[in-house]
Design goal:
Helices cover 31% and strands 23% of the residues. The chain has 15 helices and 25 strands. The strands form six sheets. Strands 8-12-13-14-15-16-17-18 form an eight-stranded parallel beta sheet. Helix 6 packs across helix 9 and helix 9 runs parallel beside helix 10. It starts with a strand and ends in a 20-residue tail after the last strand. The mean pLDDT is 97.
């Protein structure tokens, strides 16, 4: 079956220009001058992209679907969360498989794949959350690598939830990962500082949401990032810094990359759109996440980091706790489930604040949303519109604006962190493996259509 996307401005690695995109089966077959493909394939299915932009569908390498944390459960599972992602122009994600303390990494991977494959609706890979590193679990690395897991998630906080990895174990994991052409993705916060400041605040009766940020000052993140870079230098292991928000840490990443170390970093959509002023709102608890929101000056520096390529991608760090679940932790910030939803909003938020407001160009937008996430996290065949690549496309309307509200999300989350914002760049169609699976927000596919992707080694962009 031939599908032709015609009439749109197509963003390719060589630039944005008007082209017909010819799709055969699950792959892009050709890019032809406007109208030529339609004349050559008279019986093909057509998607009219007139007045729209055609971009490679998004790759979001940092999402949490079907997750339980701090006593709460997410709204989205791999079916509904995948639909939300597809509505937001994203066709591939990386979620997480948990190794329980004292347990096997391989068993954690097998369990998570069973959970996902019951109803997953898009392509997915998995980071393996390492919580117990010893001789037995290190011996599992070659088999994990053979099964297409190339990254380990490491937490340097959350000991109370059985997630924190001590430095000795982290160093051993990084050394062995480097030998197996694997790398780590890091939640970088200094646990000792967080625990001390949080305890002092709660003991003094400071329980309002703003104290979540005050008890996690930027040094918490900066120190942990510097430590991980030092370990990378010593072991040769690649490190990707998750959800970087402390802008002073960008210089550490840039220096490491200039040195030739295999280090990359992301920021997240919410850090680019929201500031710590949100914690002062009546619903401030809904904006509790870690690392926390920072001030406007810090936000401006994050944008500059994207422009100067000190940051390599923008992820969602999707966690769809409902408004009700977030409120259950009150009255103390210390008990509110950390996390915020955003898998669907990543596209319009980044497009509006980036391209529409003139901070970044179309090419850079596509790098951050699609190309570099695909390459850094080993999704070969994704992230570009070129012959031979997967036929994963997002067709977006760069003109029509919508005001965000809780109704903007797929499913019943009950709040939207971007409520009241006027955004553009929404996907009108999402094409996944050569089929239109979303049109005007309506899911046309089926649950279970998604696939596990065995990911390749990281291809990091040059500094």
């Amino acid at each position: 079956m031939t599908l032709i996307v015609t009439g749109g401005k197509v963003v390719t690695p060589e630039g944005a220009r008007y082209l017909d995109v010819v799709i055969e089966g699950e792959a892009i077959a050709a890019l032809l001058p406007p109208g030529e493909a339609v004349r050559a394939h008279s019986g093909a299915e057509l998607v009219d992209a007139t007045g729209k932009l055609v971009i490679p569908a998004g790759v979001d390498p940092h999402v949490h679907l079907l997750v339980g944390f701090m006593g709460q459960r997410s709204v989205y599972d791999f079916g509904s969360g995948g639909i939300a992602a597809l509505r937001g122009g994203t066709t591939a994600i990386v979620d997480f498989a948990l190794q329980r303390r004292g347990g096997s990494m391989l068993k954690g991977l097998a369990h998570r794949r069973r959970q996902a494959e019951a109803n997953v609706t898009l392509d997915y890979g998995l980071h393996l959350i390492a919580t117990d590193v010893n001789e037995t679990t290190l011996a599992e690395l070659p088999e994990l690598r053979a099964q297409g897991v190339t990254t380990f998630k490491v937490y340097t906080v959350y000991e109370e939830d059985g997630l924190k990895l001590e430095d000795g174990q982290l160093y051993a994991l990084m050394a062995e990962a480097a030998r197996n052409d694997m790398s780590i993705v890091l939640h970088a916060e200094n646990a000792g500082i967080v625990e001390r400041l949080r305890g002092e605040a709660v003991a003094a009766g400071h329980t309002e949401p703003r104290w979540h940020a005050l008890t996690r000052p930027p040094i918490v993140e900066i120190e942990a990032i510097g430590r991980a870079i030092a370990f990378s230098r010593a072991t040769g292991c690649g490190v990707h810094i998750l959800h970087l928000v402390a802008a002073d840490a960008i210089a550490l990443v840039k220096a490491a990359r200039a040195e030739g170390l295999p280090v990359t970093a992301e920021t997240c959509t919410h850090y680019l759109a929201l500031t710590d002023e949100a914690l002062e709102r009546g619903n401030g608890h809904e904006f509790i996440l870690s690392p926390p929101l920072r001030d406007r000056a810090n936000q401006d520096r994050l944008w500059q980091g994207l422009v100067e390529k000190g940051l390599q991608l923008v992820a969602s760090d999707e966690v769809s706790y409902s408004a009700q679940a977030k409120a259950l932790g009150l009255p103390s910030f210390a008990n509110v489930a950390n996390g915020i939803t955003g898998i669907e909003a990543r596209l319009p938020v980044l497009f509006t604040l980036g391209v529409d407001q003139g901070r970044i160009g179309l090419q850079r937008f596509v790098e951050l949303f699609s190309t570099w996430p695909a390459e850094i996290f080993g999704f070969t065949g994704k992230g570009r519109i070129a012959p031979g690549y997967d036929a994963d496309l997002a067709i977006i309307d760069p003109v029509t604006r919508r005001t965000m509200s809780p109704a903007s999300d797929y499913g019943d989350i009950g709040y939207n962190p971007y409520s009241g914002m006027d955004l553009t760049g929404f996907a009108t169609e999402t094409i996944y493996r050569g089929k239109v699976v979303v049109r005007d927000g309506v899911f046309l596919g089926r649950e279970g259509q998604g696939r596990f992707v065995a990911r390749a080694s990281a291809k990091r962009p040059a500094p």
